C-alpha cells in the first residue's frame, strides 16, 4: 500500500503520514512511497490521533505570513540508473567554480565531480563503494549522491544559482485572514501531445454547470471539483496567460502538468515547458498521454527519457509524479487529479481572503453591453462591486462580476475565476490587477491608453485588423508579419484591435486607405453602411489560414497590375485653415474631374509650380471621403506642404491601371 492509498482509506492527510513516519525514522520519500507492514502497523496504532482530511478542510485561522512553501525535495538514489544524464536544463548556469574545493549540487558524471573537486577518480569510486554505491567513471551521480559524496569528502557545497524570479505570491502579506486555497494548474507540453484534448475532457466531465444552474462560460480558467479537493485549470489559448505572466517575472500557476504523448516522447516544446516550470519554481506532474495507442512498455521508455531532465519518477525513488493517461478516453484522468491534489497539499497553499484584491488578467475582450471586460484570478483579497482598480495601462471601477457559471455575483474571494466589467479600456493578458483608492485610480486615468498615431508607409498595403480576442489578434499579427516576409511585401498595420468592427474603425480605414480584415468578429450595422459610403473594403474570416490566403491574393492582385499616373481633377483654393495639432488644410472647390484621397497633387501659383505631395486626408463637410467630384467643395492636407494661398490651382493625379487609362 502506498501512502496516498493509506491516506484515502483512513481519511488522514498524506502529509501527516509522511511526517509521522519520517519522525519515526522510516526512509520515506513521498506520498507515492510504498509502506511496509511495520510502517502500516505503526500507523494503524496512531491513526486516531492524527488530524483527518475532513477536519483539515474547514480549518480557517490566522496564520503566519508564509504564503507558499515549496514541496520538500526528497532524496534520490542514482545507482539504479546506469543511463547517462546529459546536460540538465540550460537555465541552470554552470558557473566556473569560485573555489575549487566547493561543488555545486547538481547531477553530474563521476568524472566531472573529480575534475571540479580536483579529486582522483579512484578515490571517488572507493568512497562511493563505502557508501554502498557502485559507480564507474562515466556514471551519472544524481544531485543527492553528489551532496552525500561531497559531505563524505569534507567538500563544501553550494546550491545551483537559479535566478528565481520574484513571484507575486512572495509578496509578504503580513496581516489578514489566511485560508487554504486550491492549486492553479497549467497544462503544458509539445504541440499535438494532447493539451486541448485533456482540457476538453476535463471540462466536459468535471465542470458541473448544471448543478450551479447556469451555463459555463469561457473564462480562461475553470474550477474542477474532485473528491479530494478543488483544482483550477488555466485554459487560455496557447497558455498565453501562463507565459505572459511568467514573462513578467511572476507566477500564476502553482503546478505544471507536463503532457507527453507516449508515442512521441520528449520533444522540443516538452523541454521548453520543463524549463519554464523550473524557472517558475513550480513542481511538475507528468502525464504520459495516449497510452491507449501504444504498448505498455512505451510508458517506461518515456519515463527513462525524463531522467536526463532531472525529472526522476517517484516509483524510481525520485520526487516527480508520473501518471499514464488517455486524455481521449479519460483513462487515468481521475488518478491525475488525485496526484495534483496530493502535490498541492504538500505545498500548503494559502491565500489572504479579506484585504484589497490583487490578481492577474487571464483574458480580456469587449463584451456587448458591458464594454471592455477581463477575466481575473485574484491571488489575495476580496473583490467587490464598486471597487476602483488599476490594471496595466488602464483601470476602472467594478460594475459587474460574473462567475464561470454565468451568475452575477456581488463579491468574490481569491482563486475563483471571475469576469469583471467596468474597465476604461481593454486590459492586456498578464496585466496585474490591483484594487486602489479612488484618488489613485483618478491619477492613472489621466494616463489612459490611446491609439498609436497612424503612420503611412509608401508602397505598403495598409491594413486594419480586428479580432475576437487579444490572443487571436497577436496570432494574426504574427502570421501577417510572416506572410509579409514571404511575399517581400510590407503590410502596414494602421490599427489592430479586439472586438466587432465599429463605425470609427471604418472611418479610420477610410482616412488611411486601409482595408479591413476582420477575424471572428461581426460588423456593426452602421459600420457596414459606412463601408459602402466610403468604399472601404472589408473581409471577414473565421479561419486564420483563409484570411492569410486572401491577403496573399490581395498582394498578388496589387502586384500584377501595371499602373500609370494620370491627371484626374483640378481644384482652386478658396480658404486656408491652419488648425493646431492637425496642420494646414486647403479648402478647395473642385472645378473639373475629381479629387481622390489616394491621389497626389501638384500646386500651381500663377504659372509657377510651387509644390507637390500626396493627399493625407480628404474631407467633405467635415467627414472623411474617398472622392469629391467637380462642383463640390472639399478640404485636404498634403504631405510636406503647408504654404497654401487663396487662388492656388491644384491638380490631382492618380495611379490607375494602365488598362483603364483613356487615351
Ligand atoms: P495539443 O496540440 O497538445 O492541444 O494536442 P491535441 O489535444 O489537439 O491532440 C492532438 C491529437 O492527438 C488529436 O488528434 C487528438 O485527438 C489526439 N489525442 C489526444 N489525446 C489522445 C489520447 O489520449 N489518445 C489518442 N489515441 N489520441 C489522442
Summarize the structure.
The chain contains 17 helices and 34 strands. It has 663 residues and is α+β, with helices and mostly antiparallel strands.
Describe the structure.
The protein is of the alpha+beta class. The protein has six domains: 3-49, no CATH class; 90-163, no CATH class; 175-351, P-loop containing nucleotide triphosphate hydrolases (Rossmann fold, 3-Layer(aba) Sandwich); 353-444, Elongation Factor Tu (Ef-tu), domain 3; 461-557, Rossmann fold (3-Layer(aba) Sandwich), CATH 3.40.50; 563-660, Translation factors (Elongation Factor Tu (Ef-tu), domain 3, Beta Barrel). The protein has 17 helices and 34 strands. The strands form eight sheets. The chain has a six-stranded mixed β-sheet, with helices on both faces. Helix 14 runs parallel beside helix 17 (544-560) and helix 15 (503-512) runs parallel beside helix 16 (525-534). The chain is elongated. 39% of the residues are buried. Guanosine-5'-diphosphate binds at residues 189, 191-197, 289-290, 292-293, 326-328.
Amino acid at each position: 500500500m502506498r501512502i496516498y492509498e493509506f491516506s484515502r482509506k483512513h481519511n488522514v492527510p498524506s502529509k501527516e503520514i509522511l511526517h509521522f513516519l519520517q519522525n519515526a525514522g522510516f526512509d520515506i520519500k513521498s506520498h507515492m512511497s510504498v509502506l511496509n507492514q511495520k510502517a502500516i502497523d505503526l500507523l494503524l496504532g496512531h491513526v486516531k490521533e492524527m488530524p483527518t482530511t475532513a477536519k483539515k478542510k474547514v480549518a480557517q485561522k490566522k496564520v503566519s505570513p508564509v504564503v507558499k512553501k515549496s514541496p520538500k525535495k526528497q532524496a534520490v538514489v542514482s545507482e539504479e540508473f546506469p543511463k547517462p544524464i546529459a546536460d540538465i536544463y540550460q537555465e541552470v548556469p554552470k558557473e566556473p567554480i569560485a573555489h575549487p574545493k566547493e561543488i555545486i549540487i547538481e547531477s553530474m558524471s563521476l568524472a566531472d565531480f573529480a575534475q571540479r573537486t580536483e579529486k582522483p577518480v579512484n578515490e571517488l569510486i572507493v568512497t562511493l563503494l563505502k557508501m554502498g554505491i557502485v559507480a564507474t567513471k562515466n556514471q551519472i551521480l544524481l544531485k543527492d549522491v553528489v551532496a552525500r559524496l561531497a559531505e563524505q569528502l569534507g567538500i563544501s557545497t553550494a546550491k545551483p544559482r537559479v535566478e528565481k524570479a520574484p513571484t507575486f505570491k512572495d509578496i509578504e502579506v503580513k496581516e489578514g485572514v489566511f485560508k487554504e486555497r486550491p492549486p492553479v494548474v497549467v497544462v503544458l507540453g509539445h504541440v499535438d501531445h494532447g493539451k486541448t484534448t485533456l482540457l476538453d475532457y476535463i471540462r466536459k466531465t468535471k465542470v458541473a454547470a448544471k448543478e450551479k444552474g447556469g451555463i459555463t462560460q469561457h473564462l480562461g480558467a475553470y474550477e474542477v471539483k474532485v473528491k479530494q479537493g478543488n483544482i483550477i485549470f488555466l485554459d487560455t489559448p496557447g497558455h498565453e496567460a501562463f507565459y505572459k505572466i511568467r514573462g513578467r517575472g511572476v507566477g500564476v500557476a502553482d503546478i505544471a502538468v507536463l503532457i507527453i504523448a507516449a508515442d512521441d516522447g520528449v520533444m522540443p516544446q516538452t523541454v521548453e515547458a520543463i524549463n519554464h516550470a523550473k524557472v517558475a519554481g513550480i513542481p511538475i506532474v507528468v502525464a504520459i498521454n495516449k497510452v491507449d495507442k501504444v504498448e505498455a512498455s512505451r510508458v517506461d521508455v518515456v519515463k527513462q527519457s525524463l531522467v536526463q531532465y532531472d525529472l526522476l519518477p517517484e516509483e524510481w525513488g525520485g520526487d516527480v509524479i508520473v501518471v499514464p493517461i488517455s486524455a481521449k478516453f479519460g483513462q487515468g484522468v481521475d488518478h491525475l487529479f488525485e496526484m495534483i491534489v496530493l502535490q498541492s497539499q504538500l505545498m500548503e497553499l494559502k491565500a489572504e481572503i479579506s484585504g484589497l484584491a490583487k490578481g492577474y488578467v487571464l483574458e480580456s475582450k469587449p463584451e456587448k453591453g458591458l464594454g471592455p471586460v477581463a477575466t481575473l484570478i485574484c491571488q489575495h483579497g476580496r473583490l467587490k462591486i464598486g471597487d476602483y482598480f488599476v490594471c496595466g495601462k488602464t483601470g476602472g471601477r467594478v460594475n459587474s462580476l460574473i462567475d464561470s457559471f454565468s451568475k452575477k455575483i456581488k463579491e468574490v474571494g481569491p482563486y475563483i475565476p471571475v469576469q469583471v466589467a467596468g474597465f476604461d479600456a481593454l486590459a492586456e493578458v498578464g496585466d496585474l490587477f490591483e484594487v486602489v483608492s479612488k484618488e489613485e485610480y483618478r491619477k492613472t486615468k489621466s494616463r489612459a491608453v490611446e491609439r498609436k498615431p497612424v503612420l503611412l508607409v509608401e508602397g505598403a498595403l495598409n491594413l486594419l485588423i480586428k479580432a475576437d480576442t487579444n490572443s487571436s489578434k497577436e496570432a494574426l499579427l504574427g502570421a501577417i508579419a510572416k506572410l509579409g516576409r514571404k511575399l517581400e511585401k510590407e503590410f502596414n498595420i494602421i490599427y489592430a484591435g479586439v472586438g466587432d468592427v465599429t463605425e470609427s474603425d471604418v472611418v479610420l480605414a477610410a482616412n488611411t486607405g486601409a482595408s479591413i480584415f476582420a477575424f471572428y468578429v461581426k460588423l456593426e450595422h452602421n459600420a457596414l453602411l459606412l463601408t459602402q459610403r466610403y468604399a472601404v473594403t472589408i473581409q471577414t474570416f473565421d479561419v486564420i489560414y483563409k484570411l492569410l490566403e486572401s491577403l496573399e491574393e490581395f498582394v498578388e492582385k496589387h502586384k500584377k497590375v501595371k499602373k500609370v499616373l494620370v491627371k484626374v481633377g483640378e481644384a482652386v483654393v478658396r480658404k486656408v485653415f491652419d488648425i493646431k495639432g492637425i496642420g494646414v488644410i486647403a479648402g478647395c472647390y473642385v472645378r473639373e474631374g475629381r479629387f481622390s484621397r489616394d491621389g497626389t497633387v501638384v500646386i500651381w501659383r500663377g504659372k509657377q509650380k510651387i509644390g507637390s505631395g500626396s493627399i493625407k486626408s480628404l474631407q467633405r463637410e467635415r467627414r472623411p471621403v474617398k472622392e469629391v467630384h467637380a462642383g463640390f467643395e472639399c478640404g485636404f492636407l498634403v504631405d510636406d506642404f503647408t504654404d497654401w494661398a487663396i487662388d492656388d490651382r491644384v491638380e490631382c493625379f492618380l495611379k490607375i491601371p494602365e488598362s483603364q487609362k483613356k487615351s
